[in-house]
Design a protein that fits this description.
Layout (H helix, E strand, L loop, with lengths): L2 H19 L7 H11 L19 E4 H6 L27 E3 H11 L4 E3 L7 H15 L7 E5 L2 H15 L6 E3 L8 H7 L11 H4 L12 E5 H9 L14 E4 L7 H18 L7 E5 L8 H12 L10
Parallel strand pairs: 3-8, 4-6, 4-7, 5-6, 7-8
Antiparallel strand pairs: 1-2
Length: 317
């Protein structure tokens, strides 16, 4: 892709759109020519283009090397062994992690809270997903272990698709609880015909009301608005009953500012109270491409207020 040609094409198309919208291009040819000349001047309609240098992220150790060093469970290297070519698996065991991904993994395994402030496309999801999977592969006890909170359903659905690909056939249970979740298992399976058996696809399954799914998912994905409802409704009480909750992850954490940030902060405190968790008992993880790592003190203050938990400068990666 030629970025300059794409930029020029976008400019031309936008000018053509403006002329068409105001019906100038056909009826007032001289005016149309004058507008096109004026709009083509630098800064009239457009700024830039801007070039951004995005250096590659430094590489650390692979999952296989970390397994051999005793850092993580060997089972991580066997995820999706049904895919013969190891390099084509969702978590290739021999592909080096980025340094910040490895640092995040070691950090969470050391029972520390975490703020991941790396850039877009840096693999922030792996920073919390790999330690969660390690925990679940080490102890497969049923019940919710990790809560992943997203600000909108579109992001919930993106993560759901990723987990389907990653966890198919692993036995690790997962599911989303949003307004899109069907009430009954039969309808959930019909509408989610691509869902693997270990995905929870109905509210009755989430609540443990069907024979082959007597426990909520080990990885629960939702948004903050639905979490509010889950905490209020008696029928959803089984979701909070396992006593095994260990991880609370907020993706796109920079969206939780102002009144919404206060609401989510209080919601997380209610969640901890409902779970009977004291300060320091949950691993709290926030990720965002726009939390500036160079201002670690601001990131620490933000995360501390949001989660109601202790964070230090060392917890910002």
């Amino acid at each position: 892709m030629n970025a300059i040609e794409v930029t020029q094409t976008l400019h031309r198309n936008y000018i053509r759109y403006l002329l068409t919208t105001f019906n100038v291009g056909r009826t007032e040819l001289e005016l149309a020519d004058a507008l096109q000349r004026e709009w083509a001047k630098p800064g009239a309609l457009f700024r830039g283009p801007f070039l951004e240098f995005n250096p590659p992220y430094a590489h650390g150790h692979s999952l296989r090397e970390l397994t051999e060093a005793g850092v993580v469970s060997e089972a991580l290297c066997r995820l999706r062994e049904d895919i013969a070519e190891a390099h084509q698996r969702p978590l290739p065991p021999d592909r080096p992690l980025y340094v910040h991904q490895e640092s995040a993994l070691r950090h969470v395994l050391a029972n520390r809270n975490l703020v991941v402030a790396s850039g877009t496309g840096s693999g922030k999801t792996e920073c919390f997903l790999i330690p969660i999977l390690h925990d679940l592969l080490t102890d497969s006890s049923p019940g919710v272990r990790a809560l992943l909170i997203y600000p909108m359903n579109a992001l919930v659905n993106d993560q759901l698709e990723r987990l389907r690909n990653l966890l198919k056939g692993t036995g690790i249970t997962f599911g989303r609880y949003t307004s899109e979740l069907e009430e009954y298992e039969s309808e959930g399976r019909r509408k989610n015909d691509k869902a693997p058996e270990n995905e929870i696809v109905s509210r009755e399954a989430m609540r443990g009301h069907i024979k082959h799914s007597s426990h909520p998912p080990q990885i629960l994905i939702t948004n903050y608005a639905m979490l509010e409802y889950l905490l209020l409704r008696p029928q959803d009480a089984p979701i909070f009953a396992s006593g095994l909750w260990r991880f609370v992850c907020l993706d796109e954490a920079h969206t939780y500012t102002g009144a919404q940030g206060i609401e989510v902060s209080l919601l997380l405190r209610r969640l901890k109270h409902r779970l009977g968790k004291q300060a320091g008992e949950l691993r709290c993880i926030a990720t965002s491409a726009t939390l500036v790592r160079d201002d670690a003190d601001a990131a620490v203050q933000f995360a501390t207020h949001l989660f109601g938990e202790a964070f230090t400068r060392d917890d910002v990666i």
